[in-house]
Design goal:
This protein is of the alpha+beta class. The protein has three domains: about 190 residues, Immunoglobulin-like (Sandwich), CATH 2.60.40; about 100 residues, Neutral Protease, domain 2 (Orthogonal Bundle), CATH 1.10.390.10; about 160 residues, Neutral Protease, domain 2. The chain contains eleven helices and 21 strands. An eight-stranded mixed sheet has the order 6-5-9-3-2-12-15-14, with no helix packed on it. A four-stranded mixed sheet has the order 1-4-8-7, with no helix packed on it. Strand 10 and strand 11 form a beta hairpin. The N and C termini lie close together (about 5 Å).
């Protein structure tokens, strides 16, 4: 697992002394003397340098040209935003080489700092509440760029892919890279004839000219930056429609080899699974659906909005419908409602894992209760598994298996505490409550208390926030592991466990 430690943050150097301060004041009009730079981070304690302060983005228009043979990317990003403070300067998160920046039509000064900051100084300061159009022209080779010692761009034999969590945008478009700033997207990509460009949402059009084909994709619902994806390569593409009427586009690299059949046998069930999940979570919240499997050497899958990313390794041992269930569950828990901060990751992973448990029930391969009992019994009290707190695991443990398995165990404990009627009302009502927005674990507890009419502080503390295995009395109170004998391994366990490496970002 690659750890994204919060310590790997850049620190802006402030010039000391009154002379430096005076020079800053002289550099801007007196009427704008009260303006200040936007913060270089949005305020997430796990990743202090991720995202930016001072503005809120509403839309990204990305016009790109990509050459698969050389991994060269050229782009023009048009970013629509509104300022949230009086701004003298603001940052975007980005790694490629910038040739020009314009703010509201005027050329703006720019420089880079830290690991991934693009600092932009507009010709005139921006007042709070101003509508802003930022145009960034750029180019570069994404696979040549690293930040904090890693890359989120995956070079393939026939192209490249941008997909990772909690960051992927820096390698292919400038952004305010944090889930708190969701926006809509238009992604237009020019690639050589014979290659395809896959992104989120619906394919609006394609056109070919002089050996190049342009693909125009649109995501018309708010989308977090890490959920935006781009994949260029040679794909076999299938299309269809779910029973509920949602168009489905799936894409498979032509060179998946022995994994091709298992990948298709799993992902072609996307529409069926989404319709099934809507019975638990409410209507599917977007107007597009699908999945794609590029021939990468990564091991993880990712809930990229409307079109999850899967690595071939997910299907190396055969079909794996459980991982499809997991990533599609995220369309509600993670995409429709996104985390307020990365410490709230349980709201994504605990519930996506629990969806796999519900699928196990659906397939008669073990109930959620049997899976919970098995997880509880499988980890002795001195297992490090219990030291990770799913409700606030820390950046180093954000994708630890405990966030998934202990996280799902906490969901089952909640179900047993409040009863099925209230539990399934919470499960379906929660995404609608915070539709297309953000929320925290604290928000979820309050909502569960409101719907159930119960005080749940002790239960949440025991199962999500204590760095220790809940005691036998606490487990019995939550109807976990009531039997004294070690529970048998549910039939679905190996399939579920086979998805574990899907989360090692």
């Amino acid at each position: 697992m690659t750890l994204r430690l919060g310590a790997f943050v850049h620190r802006r150097i402030i010039a000391p002394g009154a002379l430096a301060a005076a020079s800053v004041l002289l550099a801007i009009p007196a009427s704008a003397a009260s303006t200040s730079p936007g913060a270089p981070g949005i305020g997430d304690p796990y990743y202090p340098a991720y995202g930016n302060g001072g503005y809120d983005v509403s839309h990204y228009d990305l016009r790109l040209k990509y050459q698969p043979a050389t991994d060269e990317l050229e782009g023009t990003a048009t970013i629509l935003a509104k300022t949230t403070q009086d701004l003298s300067r603001f940052d975007l998160d980005f790694l490629l080489d910038v040739s020009e920046v314009r703010v509201n039509g005027a050329v703006a000064a720019f420089t880079t700092s830290g690991e991934h900051e693009l600092e932009i100084t507009p010709k005139t300061p921006l007042a709070k509440g101003t509508t802003v159009t930022v145009v960034v022209r750029y180019s570069g080779i994404p696979s040549s760029k690293q930040a904090y010692g890693f890359t989120s761009w995956h070079r393939t034999a026939d192209g490249g892919v941008g997909a990772n969590e909690p960051e992927a945008a820096w390698w292919w478009f400038p952004s305010n890279d944090h889930p708190l700033d969701k926006a809509t997207y238009d992604v237009s990509v020019l690639v050589p004839d014979g290659s395809q460009a896959i992104s989120n949402g619906t394919l609006q059009s394609t056109s070919s000219r002089l050996g190049w084909t342009r693909y125009n994709w649109r995501s018309n619902k708010p989308q977090a930056t890490y959920l935006a994806t781009l994949a260029v390569g040679k794909f076999d593409i299938t299309t269809g429609t779910t029973e509920s009427g949602i168009p489905v586009v799936n894409a498979y690299s032509k060179d998946l080899g022995d994994n091709a059949g298992a990948a298709r046998a799993s992902i072609e069930r996307t529409g069926e699974i989404a319709d099934w999940l809507s019975g638990y979570f409410g209507p599917y919240p977007f107007d597009a659906l699908g999945g794609y499997v590029p021939n990468t050497n990564t091991g993880y899958a990712l809930e990229t909005q409307t079109r999850p990313f899967y690595s071939p390794r997910q299907f190396a041992s055969g079909s794996n419908v459980s991982v499809v269930v997991h990533e599609l569950a995220h369309q509600w828990y993670g995409d429709y409602v996104s985390v307020a901060g990365w410490k709230d990751i349980w709201l994504n992973e605990g519930f996506a894992r629990y969806a796999q448990w519900l699928w196990s029930e659906h397939e008669d391969e073990g109930t959620a209760q049997e899976l919970a009992d098995y997880v509880y019994a499988s980890h002795p009290a001195d297992d490090a598994f219990w030291t990770v707190k799913p409700g606030d695991p820390g950046a180093a443990n954000q994708f630890d298996i405990a966030v998934y398995d202990r996280g799902a165990l906490a969901v089952q404990a909640l179900r047993n505490e409040i009863g099925d009627d209230a539990f399934f009302a919470v499960l379906k009502g929660w995404p609608h409550k915070h539709a297309y927005g953000n929320a925290s674990v604290v928000d979820f507890q309050k909502y569960a208390e409101q719907i159930s009419g119960r005080q749940l502080g002790a239960l949440f503390d025991t199962w999500l926030f204590q760095p220790a295995k809940p005691t036998a009395p606490a487990a019995r109170t939550a109807s976990i592991a009531k039997v004294s004998a070690a529970p048998a391994q549910p039939k679905s366990w190996k399939k579920i466990a086979a998805t574990n490496d899907a989360h090692e970002h």
